[in-house]
Amino acid sequence: MSLLRIRCPLLDPPQRCQWALVATGSREPLRGEGPLSELPRADRIQLVIPAALVLITRVRLPHAARRRAGSVLAFAVEEATASEPDANHVCRLGPAGDADILAVVDRQALQRWREALKALDLGAYEFHCETLLLPWTKAEWSVAWDGREGFVRTGELEGAATDCGDRLSPPLSLRLALDDATARGARPESIALYVTAPDAAPDVEKWQRELGITLRLAGSWDWRTASPERGVTLMQERRRWSASPGTLARLRLAAWLAGIALAVHALALVADWSLLAGERRTLRQQMEARFRAAFPDAVAVVNPALQMRRKLAEVRHAAGEVDGGDFLPMIEKVAAGVRELPGGSLRTVSYESGRLTVELVGIEEAGVRRVASHLVHAGMSVETSAASPRGGSGTVVMTVRAP
């Protein structure tokens, strides 16, 4: 069975792409690059989305929500993304202990590529994340590195893109991921490093000292030659079919059964939404009760979570302690996030009531995403928006709040 693997850079126009065709009985793939209209045909097609364009995150979902997809799951990752839920396509990859692993991609960019591929009539195809094609073994992380940046696979269904580094210094995001894994009691025993470009291997001893973990060079790696069965399918596009003239008449009974099934499904959906609404009311009542137990003098409780954070900050300030929403801890995290940006990128910084506003100028969207990803991993809430016309082109305003 032949396999056609297509690299799918979602943010680029769906006009050209890199591809690799693995024919039956062949060990080396046939590689190519060109217009989508010139893609070869194959029995099986995989679209590989670059690691930096897929956010893989861990959340806790209500049991009923695990059967949902798309717009419903998008609200579960709202805090982990810097965009509106409607802008994301979210799919559930599987469980991880008492949590669930979700993959998030840009909905509009994904739709553009779907429409372009539909016009080619390629048939059925699968979407894969480059991160989960990387080899991985239990108790060991795998890192793909091109000499400047890359990505890490931390589990069977988990991984992330890294920020920049060099031959002597590993990326900061990798260090933060190790610290987070240590705090959760899930630190790996070692890291396997795969190079994806010639002469990309770093100084292993210096990286080991920086990261505090055993690092081994595992050889070269390329998405084109990854095992066809190694990856995890994010979603599938089924092959379209057309009915013969007499088919609809013969399927009338099936249509009635489908209508009854849809009616039952609609009733089940209403029941699920009612259950979720009840769970939400119960959780809010519990939060409000705990807030009133801690602060009985409160007159009104509008947002118990927010009010609890503010009261906690007041208590810390009264005790002479620093709160996570104060200027110094927030500016320290922001400084760590923007230090990889070119000089002069940071224009202004302003702070007010636990909110830090940063104005960045002259940086690409990928740079903005790296900064936002770093701050989210540091436990901050991030919102980005374009600046007013006076800021000039390429100016982004980033609003950072403490959790």
Short description:
31% of the residues lie in helices and 27% in strands. The chain is α+β, with helices and mostly antiparallel strands and 403 residues long.
Q: How are the SSEs placed, and which strands pair?
A:
Elements: E1 3-7, E2 16-22, E3 30-35, E4 44-49, E5 55-59, H1 71-74, E6 88-96, E7 99-106, H2 107-120, E8 125-129, E9 140-145, E10 150-153, E11 159-161, H3 172-183, E12 190-195, H4 204-211, E13 214-220, E14 233-237, H5 247-250, H6 252-294, H7 304-318, H8 327-338, E15 346-352, E16 355-361, H9 365-377, E17 381-386, E18 395-401
Parallel strand pairs: 1-4, 4-8, 9-12, 12-13
Antiparallel strand pairs: 1-2, 2-3, 5-7, 6-7, 8-14, 9-10, 10-11, 15-16, 16-18, 17-18
Helix pairs in contact: 6-7, 8-9
CATH names the topology of the largest domain as Nucleotidyltransferase, domain 5
CATH class of the largest domain: Alpha Beta
What CATH architecture label of the largest domain applies?
2-Layer Sandwich
How are strands sequenced across the largest beta sheet? 3-2-1-4-8-14
Strand content: 25-35%
Count every helix, treating DSSP H or I runs of 4 or more residues as helices: 9
Our count of domains comes out at 4
**Uncertain runs with pLDDT below 50, 5 residues or more?**
388-392
| Rg, nearest Å | 24 Å
Helix content: 25-40%
Structural notes for this entry:
With 403 residues, the protein is α+β, with helices and mostly antiparallel strands. The chain folds into 4 domains: 1-134 and 221-239, Nucleotidyltransferase, domain 5, CATH 3.30.420.380; 136-218, Nucleotidyltransferase, domain 5, CATH 3.30.420; 282-321, no CATH class; 327-401, General secretion pathway protein M, EpsM (Gyrase A, domain 2, 2-Layer Sandwich), CATH 3.30.1360. 31% of the residues lie in helices and 27% in strands. The chain is built from 9 helices and 18 strands. The chain has helices at 71-74, 107-120, 172-183, 204-211, 247-250, 252-294, 304-318, 327-338, 365-377, and strands spanning 3-7, 16-22, 30-35, 44-49, 55-59, 88-96, 99-106, 125-129, 140-145, 150-153, 159-161, 190-195, 214-220, 233-237, 346-352, 355-361, 381-386, 395-401. The strands form 4 sheets. A 6-stranded mixed beta sheet has the order 3-2-1-4-8-14, with no helix packed on it. Strand 12 (190-195), helix 4 and strand 13 (214-220) form a beta-alpha-beta unit. Helix 6 (252-294) packs parallel to helix 7 (304-318) and helix 8 packs across helix 9 (365-377). The longest helix has 43 residues, at 252-294. The chain is globular, with a radius of gyration of 24 Å. It starts with a strand and ends with a strand. The model is unreliable at 388-392 (pLDDT under 50).
